[in-house]
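pinned: reference chain
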Amino acid sequence: MPYLKKALKDNKEVIKGHHFPLHINKYQCKNNIALIGVGGNIGDSIRRFERLLVYLQRSKLLKVVATSIIFKNPPFGYLKQPYFYNTLIVVESRLSALNLLKFLQRVEKHFGRKREFVNAPRTLDLDIILYNKRKITQEPTLIVPHPHWRERESVLLPLKYLKGAVCLQRVL
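pinned: its structure tokens
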């Protein structure tokens, strides 16, 4: 299926494809539910998101429940870099939040992520945005909900396309 692109103001775009958005309604949401933010701006990010989805679907550590549209938007923080592509993935897993973070960091590394400096361009960025409506602030490497997610268009716009997703009410 080709990608459908809808231009928005300021060179932003909403992109739809075969797997974005995707809602899988067969899960009963018995385990932990997490909303994962996905981003990237190096190379073919859309193709990488498709490969990421296949990679996650093959994992025995989680189940993909839903995905949002892909949103092309400008960077923030460090501005001298290409626009970002962002999407959201809802997953169900038995992993704790900290173990899910460790798994996601291994996935980032598998897809070529290098951490050069804060807000640097990246092949893949995976963030836990929400996890079971829990607040986690005592872990040095993990804060949930993700700081400032309610202010980021890169989360809020894709979230609109997840409203009917199974399990989502468990994290919102």
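why pinned: The CA atoms of residues 108 and 160 lie 25 Å apart. The mean pLDDT is 91.
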